[in-house]
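> example.struct
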């Protein structure tokens, strides 16, 4: 038996298999649709009409009580309204609960006392989105950690922590905005459904 006879498929059969696999793959890919999150296309949810950007601009954000919470809220307001005023008649209300915790991540020993030289500040925002009837449309939680150096001078250490909180607060606001856009695009979901991080 020669080498060409041992070959199971002829070149024509291989070409036919390759073309059929290509056609099957293209048919599968053509069924997928991809659209930008902030496109001007119609929103699939029946509760929101128009684009995601216009739906986000109808969200009113409740006041918060902490300094870090205010940083998150201020950045979120700018992201939602683009520097314009809050809507007079909002379709949604957002309730934010923001917390911040700082933990030492590196220590040195000075006179038998461990003194931190680096720390991580984690800002966590829990949100609840309600429609104009007060029904909970979506809930979730987002967090971001910012690291910072802890100098030996007390004022510099406090200032470094505040700067880290501000950086983390800005990032959390971005994450909350993305989560709201996703929630509005996907439509209403049960408040008991777990939020993705």
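> example.seq
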């Amino acid at each position: 038996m020669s080498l060409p006879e041992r070959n199971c498929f002829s070149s024509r059969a291989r070409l036919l298999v390759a073309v059929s696999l290509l056609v099957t793959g293209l048919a599968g890919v053509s069924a997928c649709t991809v659209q930008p999150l902030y496109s001007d296309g119609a929103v699939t949810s029946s509760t929101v009409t128009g684009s995601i950007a216009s739906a986000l601009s109808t969200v009113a954000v409740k006041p918060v009580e902490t300094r870090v919470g205010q940083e998150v809220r201020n950045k979120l307001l700018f992201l939602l309204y683009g520097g314009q005023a809050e809507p007079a008649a909002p379709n949604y209300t957002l309730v934010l609960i923001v917390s911040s915790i700082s933990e030492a991540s590196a220590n040195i020993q000075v006179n038998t006392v461990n003194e931190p030289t680096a720390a991580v500040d984690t800002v966590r925002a829990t949100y609840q989105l309600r429609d104009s009837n007060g029904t909970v449309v979506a809930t979730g939680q987002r967090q971001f950690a910012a690291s910072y150096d802890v100098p030996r001078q007390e004022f510099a250490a406090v200032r470094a922590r505040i700067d880290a909180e501000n950086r983390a607060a800005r990032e959390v606001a971005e994450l909350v905005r993305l989560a709201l856009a996703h929630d509005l695009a996907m439509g209403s979901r049960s408040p008991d459904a777990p939020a993705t991080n």
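> remarks
Residues 41 and 51 are 6 Å apart (CA to CA).
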